[in-house]
């Protein structure tokens, strides 16, 4: 009974006492110091000794004691050693144990970075921009894929079959694209000059000039200009919304200061189709002063900024401006009305050109048959067409349009569909007669 009480007292007293532990690698001793008695526990732990691997021991550095308060200055000197990776030999211990030797350093010409491993073939020189061709960059599968068709039924079939069935464009769309391809014909070798002329006034020469220029400017991506070279006060600038009061006279006077296209734009007016129009002199007292030399100055300026220049000529076919115009002409457009006298005067214009050394222009000429003039319904237009086809390359009919009959501003978007088609056909026929590469 006494022994159980003593053990209970010892246990309750141990909760309030301090413990002191002394631990090392061989044994651990815990001493409990109660008020009356002390109990000592001794635990024997195994000693853990780490064995150094032989490949670590081969490259280990021996510990050298260093005095903290004294450093030899000679020990701070830097010494360089040159050695070859192949000269490193294994220790006898490594050779006996079969341990792997120290790996050799990589050669200098071997790429050691991730970027170097990815790009093994290093080009000697950088590539130029011309090497980024479509054949190199475009996936052939996507390149050869046909574009979506145009046309009501064609588009429905294309959508219902999830773009698997492509029957191509409709007939009207194919005709339109073929016409646009003719109009957008590319040229090299300078500006192409196309005079529009006739010996009779009032047949719609200025209107045909505006229609031709608008059709070209609306379809082509380059710059088109229409020059009013009528020495008798032309009205070409009145067919569009004028944005400047400048005329050909201003171009002649300011030719030395018009160096850039932005400066030249201040003397021309531009309509909704991006057609630029250069007006003629409005003062009848000075209009006759516009001569051959003045036209050459204006044409030289237009040749710097435009791809196609259309010239609205006057009725004075023997005027000096006409001589300069025909010398620069690449093709000509003869305007004829639908009456007997209008057709006869247009044919006489061709005869005059043939007699004055311009037979090549006559063979390549285009006759615009304006059917909006008086008397058109009373004559046989087929006979007029047959006559001109025997002398020129092509004949194009221009139908009546109320927007043109007023003689005021022409809005190309508001024209009838057949009128716009006729203007586009005239533009395509004129472009067909122009050489892609100028040889002279």
Layout of strands and helices, then pairs:
Layout: H1 2-14, E1 19-23, E2 27-32, E3 39-44, H2 54-58, H3 92-97, H4 114-118, H5 134-137, H6 140-143, H7 152-160, H8 171-183, E4 192-197, H9 205-219, E5 224-228, H10 248-253, H11 261-264, E6 269-270, E7 275-278, H12 292-305, E8 308-312, H13 320-328, E9 333-336, H14 340-355, H15 359-363, E10 366-370, H16 381-389, E11 394-398, H17 402-405, H18 417-432
Parallel strand pairs: 4-8, 4-9, 5-7, 5-8, 9-10, 10-11
Antiparallel strand pairs: 1-2, 2-3, 6-7
Write up this protein:
With 440 residues, the protein is an alpha/beta fold. Helix content is 36%, strand content 12%. α8 crosses α18 (417-432) and α9 (205-219) crosses α18.
Overview in brief:
It comes from Rhodoglobus vestalii. This is MinD-like ATPase involved in chromosome partitioning or flagellar assembly. By secondary structure, this protein is of the alpha/beta class.
């Amino acid at each position: 009974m006494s022994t159980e009480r003593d053990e209970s007292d010892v246990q309750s007293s141990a909760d309030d006492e301090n413990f002191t532990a002394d631990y090392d690698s061989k044994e651990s001793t815990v001493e409990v110091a109660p008020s009356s008695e002390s109990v000592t526990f001794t635990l024997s732990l195994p000693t853990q000794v780490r064995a150094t691997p032989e490949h670590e021991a081969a490259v280990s550095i021996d510990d050298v004691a260093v005095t903290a308060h004294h450093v030899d200055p000679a020990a701070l000197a830097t010494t360089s050693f040159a050695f070859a990776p192949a000269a490193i030999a294994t220790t006898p211990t490594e050779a006996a144990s079969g341990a792997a030797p120290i790996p050799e350093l990589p050669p200098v010409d071997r790429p050691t970075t991730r970027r170097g491993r990815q790009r093994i073939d290093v080009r000697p020189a950088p590539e130029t921009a011309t090497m980024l061709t479509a054949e190199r960059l475009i996936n052939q599968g996507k390149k050869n894929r046909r574009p979506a068709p145009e046309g009501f039924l064609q588009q429905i079939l294309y959508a219902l079959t999830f773009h698997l069935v492509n029957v191509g464009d409709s007939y009207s769309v194919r005709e339109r694209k073929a016409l646009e391809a003719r109009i957008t014909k590319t040229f090299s070798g300078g500006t192409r000059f196309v005079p529009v002329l006739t010996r009779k006034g009032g047949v719609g020469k200025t209107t045909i000039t505006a229609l031709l220029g608008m059709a070209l400017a609306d379809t082509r991506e380059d710059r088109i200009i229409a020059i009013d070279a009528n020495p008798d006060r032309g009205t070409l600038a009145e067919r569009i919304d004028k944005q400047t009061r400048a005329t050909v006279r201003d171009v002649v006077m300011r030719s030395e200061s018009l160096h850039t296209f932005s400066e030249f734009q201040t003397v021309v007016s531009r309509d909704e189709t991006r057609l630029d129009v250069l007006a003629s002199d409005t003062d009848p007292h000075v209009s006759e002063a516009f001569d051959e030399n003045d036209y050459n100055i204006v044409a030289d300026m237009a040749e710097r900024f435009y791809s196609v220049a259309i010239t609205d000529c006057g009725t004075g076919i023997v005027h000096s401006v006409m001589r300069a115009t025909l010398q620069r002409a690449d093709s000509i457009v003869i305007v004829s009305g639908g009456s007997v006298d209008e057709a006869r005067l247009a044919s006489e214009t061709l005869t005059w050109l043939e007699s004055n050394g311009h037979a090549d222009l006559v063979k390549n000429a285009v006759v615009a048959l304006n059917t909006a003039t008086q008397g058109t319904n009373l004559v046989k237009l087929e006979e007029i067409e047959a006559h001109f086809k025997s002398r020129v390359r092509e004949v194009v009919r221009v139908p009546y349009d109320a927007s043109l009959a007023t003689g005021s501003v022409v809005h190309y978007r508001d024209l009838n569909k057949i009128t716009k088609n006729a203007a586009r056909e005239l533009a395509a026929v004129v472009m067909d007669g122009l050489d892609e590469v100028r040889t002279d």
